[in-house]
Amino acid sequence: MNAKAPAGEEVRADRPLPPGMTELRVLLFSIGMMLTMVLALLDQSIVAAAAPQILTDLHPVGGVGQFPWLITAYMLAATTAQPLYGRLSDNLGPKRIYLGALAVFLLGSVLCAFAQSMPQLIAFRAVQGLGGGGLMSMGLIVMATLYPPKERGTGAGIGGLLIALSLVAGPPLGSWLSDRFSWRWIFYVNLPICVGAFVLIALSLRLAPPRGPRRGLDLIGAALIGAGASGLLLAAKEAGEPHVSASGLLVPGAVGLALTVAFVVRQATTAEPLISLSVFRDPVFRLLAPLQFIGGFALLTLPMFVVTYLRVIRNDTAGSVVVHIVPMAIGIALVFLVWGRVLARTGRCKPVLVATTLISAAAAALAALLPIDTDPLFLDGCLVLLGVGVGGVTQVALFATQAAAPPERLGVITTAARFATTLGSAVGSAVLGAILNTRFASALSGTRVGATDEDALFEHLRTASGPVRDRLVHAYAAASDAVFVTSAVMIALAVLLAVLVRDIRVNVAEPDAREPDACEPDAPAADVPAADAPAPNVAEPDSAPHL
Description:
Blueprint: H1 7-13, H2 23-49, H3 51-58, H4 68-92, H5 94-113, H6 118-146, H7 149-154, H8 156-180, H9 185-188, H10 190-204, H11 219-239, H12 246-269, H13 283-298, H14 302-313, H15 318-346, H16 350-369, H17 376-403, H18 410-444, H19 454-463, H20 466-500, E1 504-506, E2 519-521
Antiparallel strand pairs: 1-2
Helix pairs in contact: 2-6, 2-8, 2-10, 4-5, 4-6, 4-11, 4-18, 5-6, 5-10, 6-18, 8-15, 11-12, 11-18, 13-17, 13-18, 13-20, 14-15, 14-20, 15-17, 16-17, 16-20, 17-18, 18-20
């Protein structure tokens, strides 16, 4: 930036736009990007809310056991697609890939709306997940080219409000659509939003094609990690079943582990890896990648366990659950507002990262200690703290990861970081669900209650009373405590990683007095040679949410 420029020009120089882009185009793109963000955030909660109607229509007998795969199929497809989106973005440019992801999501939504059986719906949810996996990542990548770090930090509150709104609005919207019209409307509602977002992005976004040679796509690597993750998730899911056999647990687990190892070997030996293992040479990514995995595992999965906990332990109706979810949503919005302002004023990521991980660990531990008859105000206070963790940890970690990344590798590093988060969320939902079901069945062993898994729990609670109901509630409380304790232990490891990671300072104040790098680690730049490339306003981190 030219130090002699007038104040008005100085502000404009702090926000250089790519050729062909204007402030109006940026605004229109931002609206389209937020629409895609809402789609991605609403998708899982709105589907879960329509479970009774979906099961009644497609598989009234025995379909409960298949329903979790509607969530797992989506998450698995989205997880597997993450590295592909990063490489495609670096090769072809983010606009094409963004629109392609949106088109695939739209196709998946249409197919889901016309599904005639549970297997069809599960398969079509996987198609939807392939597109959904790119909505957040591509939005983050494009926003990083349009906004300098200061504006991305200041605007973080908008992303937090969107997450909070989606968390609160998803369940009642899904229930209302399925009750008032049909469960198919939870997918029909995606269509006008997808079309509107597609038109806005296609007409407004103007980005130059990427420079340099295009790199090949490691489709074999993508197949290996997809199959490996599927095997591990299946093993984790089977571990929570009350009557699982040894072969049903060990075979998919062993196959999944072997394929995952094969994927790592493939990335280390192929000329064009899907996720280059060289990214782990960066000391920032090396610590924040496992932290993001833990965040997905132990935090992003907790809201669904909290909802079920409120339904069982407190006997809340669906409407009452939403009332208690509002405090968690407030915590999410608060942390985005606060950390965006802190980043804009200080340019430092680490203090916020350490603070949010500490609060998360304390909130999860506190949730495990809550008695069944906890005062509602105390419970809501705990949920506010939990919302701070859900909204803060992975988002701040992603910001810091991108801030340390060289511009030419933004796509790969962004999607690698999101891959860690989404993989953690998929594994966490399976593992924590297995812990919940196992502890629940163990607490009821030797009794005549009969409900030994979560699938049968709600049916028994509808008819049980007196000592039988008390036994069910206390057993489920003990199982939920095990989930919260496991999450607290995992987050404690994240606290250690947050303390050890090197601070990332984003150039947000007096840019003339600093070097032209938009962001740089505290430690000498020689430790991370790739990060030394000047990047005044390209390929930097985005503070938008990525749940």
